[in-house]
Amino acid sequence: MNPQKKWRIDYGKHLFNALESLTQDLEAVFIGGSVGGKYVDKYSDLELCFIWKNEVDCDIIEQFHQKEKLNLFKSRITEVPLRAREYAMLKNDFQIDFYHYSISDFDRLTDFYKKDKVSLEIESLYYVLLNCKVLKGMTYIDKLKKMIEIYPLNLPEKNIKRYIHKFLKGDASLLIKRKDWILFYDLISDRQKLVFLTLLSLNKIYFPSYKNSWFYIEQLEIKPKSISLLYDGFYDLPPMKMWDVLIQIEQDILNLIKEIYPEIDFKGNLEFLSYKRQAKEDLSGLIN
Predict the structure, then answer these.
(1) b/e for 203-236, b at 16 or more Cβ within 10 A?
(2) Region for 102 from its dihedrals, namely left if φ exceeds 0, alpha if ψ lies in -120 to 50, beta otherwise
(3) For the chain, how big is the Rg over CA atoms in Å?
(4) DSSP 70
(5) What's the rounded Cα separation, in Å, for the pair 125 and 206?
(6) Residues forming a β-bridge with 89
(7) Judging by DSSP bridges, how do beta strands 26-32 and 46-52 pair with one another?
């Protein structure tokens, strides 16, 4: 096992044991994030998720903080989309993110699956759940995993239609001409995200996160051969070359989609990708 992964898992076990010594009201505990998943490096934090049998006991959590001498970094109620109390802590310059749910909160994951209302945030939670390191409640977690391990039948086509429609938004060549660099790089990063999300959907894989996206793309079976151009030295290219590379990759992805989902109509997408807005200084040619 990767040593960076091992010591984080060992520390996660220690924290779990410290909290469990204060309460037996925990249904399940698991490590999520990169440590629970497949990618870990020396910058990875520790994400520990506690599923409480009843309501979250904040008094117990405060005792736990004091027992472990954890310094509060931030604390907030989150909607991701479940109602959850998140404690992000620092100890000796190491960040630990704690997520506390009740069973009633966490069981809603399966409701979203059954009703085919799977958002990007829900996909991320599914991915965490399917790849987590379980410390307690294996039976409970396995039951949840079995509910969501089969990628929803209608989700790939639904997502692909939504993502490729956004391929049509924005003309980076115009931003380059105007030297709107903030908007240019914002558009470039947004389109990189859309490429990533589209490839995940083509491969029927839940969204892990945008972090280390190249690590995940390398493992995908369905992807254009040109995809490495979007990551290997991409941001070292001149702006216009960046845009041309991105457009070419999007065209390659659309051709892949055409092979797999011939029923999707995206003729307009292919035509629009090559469009560049031209300078126009007078009325000539506009009125017949």
Answers:
(1) bebbbbeeebbeebbeeeebbbeebebbeeebee
(2) beta
(3) 23
(4) P
(5) 9
(6) 72, 96
(7) antiparallel
Give just the sign of the alpha carbon dihedral 66, 70, 71, 72: negative
Q: Tell me: domain 3-148, CATH 3.60.20.40, correct?
A: no
Closest Cα partner for 213 from 232, 186, 187? 232
In the three-class reduction of DSSP (H, G, I as helix; E, B as strand; rest coil), residue 209 is classed as coil
**Triad 229, 233, 234: Cα angle to 5°:** 60
Q: What is the pLDDT of residues 49-83, one digit of tens each?
A: 999 998 888 888 888 888 888 876 655 555 554 55
Q: 26 vs 19, 21, 50, 66, CA distance in Å? A: 9, 11, 7, 19
Centre a 10 Å sphere on the Cβ of residue 261 and count the other Cβ atoms it contains.
14
Cβ–Cβ < 8 Å for 218, 232: no
Q: Count Cα atoms within 13 angstroms, Cβ side, for 263.
A: 2
Contact call for residues 116 and 155 (beta carbons, < 8 A): yes
User: Where exactly are the structural domains of the chain?
Assistant: 3-148, 155-273
pLDDT digits (tens, 9 = 90+) for 208-242: 989 888 889 999 999 999 999 998 899 999 999 99
